[in-house]
Amino acid sequence: NYYNTDTKQLxxxxxxxxxxxxxxxxxxxxxxxxxxxxFHVKSKSPYLICTRTGGKLDSNGFTKLLKDV
Length: 69
Hints:
The longest helix has 14 residues, at 30-43. With 69 residues, the chain is of the alpha+beta class. It has 3 helices and 3 strands, in the order E-E-H-E-H-H. Strands 1-2-3 form a 3-stranded antiparallel sheet, with no helix packed on it.
């Protein structure tokens, strides 16, 4: 899974129903793409959604993050 900064698309290859649905591509609106790119510059992390220290956020951590919000 990755975010393509050139095409402003989120490409999903690994997710729960990937075997039956295949690759998914989600177009980001310009406003959201700008937020993502600004966050990337400020966080200095290679991950789109990361831990507070800039590390990889696993699926359990992401679920906990969503529940806390």
